[in-house]
UniProtKB/TrEMBL annotation:
Pfam families: Aminotran_1_2 (PF00155). Keywords: Aminotransferase, Pyridoxal phosphate, Transferase. The keyword Transcription does not apply. It comes from Nocardioides daeguensis. Its cofactor is pyridoxal 5'-phosphate. Residues 19-352 form the Aminotransferase class I/classII large domain. The keyword Transferase applies. This is Pyridoxal phosphate-dependent aminotransferase. NCBIfam families: PRK07777.1 (NF005855). One of its GO terms (molecular function) is transaminase activity. Gene3D superfamilies: Aspartate Aminotransferase, domain 1, Type I PLP-dependent aspartate aminotransferase-like (Major domain).
Amino acid sequence: MGATIFAEMSALAARTGAVNLGQGFPDTDGPPVILDAAVAALRGGANQYAPGPGVPALRQAIARHQRRRYGIDLDPDREVVVTTGCTEAIAGALLGLVDPGDEVVVLEPYYDSYPAMIDFAGGVRRPVTLRAPDFRLDPTELAAAVSDRTKLILLNTPHNPTGRVLDADELVAVARVAIEHDLLVVTDEVYEHLTFDARAHVPLATLPGMAERTLTLSSAGKSWSVTGWKVGWATGPAPLVAAVTAAKQWLTFTSGAPLQPAVAAALDAGDAFPTALAHDLQAQRDQLVTGLRAAGLTTYLPEGTYFATTDVSDLSWASGGDFCRALPERAGVVAVPSEVFYDDPDAPGCGRHLVRWAFCKRPEVIAEAVRRLGGAD
Ligand code: GLN
């Protein structure tokens, strides 16, 4: 196993002093409510092992959040498990639910831990590609990816790296295929609060017939700007949550104790912070996309997440990877080549020439990156 693209690109940024628009993490802290609650928990003695499935206060707060925001009813004792970031929820779901030889249908481009964990579980991935410029999910291709060996569909919306927020038609297509073939769906919704232009994120679990077959994954990192805390969760039917909990015993056993009550406090404080964050991110998206276009880069407008995508093929680079590895020296900016998120980046409409830029940075940082790229600002 080599270094992930995120580790490679952040190291490149550190070495060259480039503006890092690669790895997706904000350069501002989360709100006082979450930080103060963490300090209080640290000072209040919450420093020994938490219960394996998570501290009850957090499981209850997660259930309240799902009820308040989406009308989803969960039993916090059986239908919620706390994980060490969504990354552990992904690992636990795949290790807990996929047997060797099972097939997993996954959206492509995919977040890089998906193929890694499908491999760890001994599963076989069947990618369904979202193609530029629209990155829409084609229901025919989705149906064609399913076989009698398919165990589950691994969904991600809002989608990293494309920034797509799947719409009602696409979600219905997923639900239809899952119900017809009696499949589970694991859906990574960590960017659930971070959508733009009044677009609503709809959890797949809210569609008819889906609650009983859908395991929903999310985390505090993106919504409350605490990506380094690594507090995530999985929610859904008790047997699916039990599978994640069982796998978790051998992954981390239990997640960081003082951060859990702090995340509970943030969830119970309501959605004002994530809503304001999404508003700010939308402005930062516009700033970056305008700047990249002014610099001559073909850029797609994302509907959510931290990320915008450009196509560098008309700049005569052999690949987005070549472009990204030259960019820090040439321009003092780091981005991530999306080619690593595809099985075959040279297939039609795939990502050999696509590059991902993070706009979860302060406006002055985005302005400096745009200036270095020659897009004025
Ligand atoms: N999810 C973030 C991204 O896509 C961070 C990934 C990571 O560092 N593993 O950039």
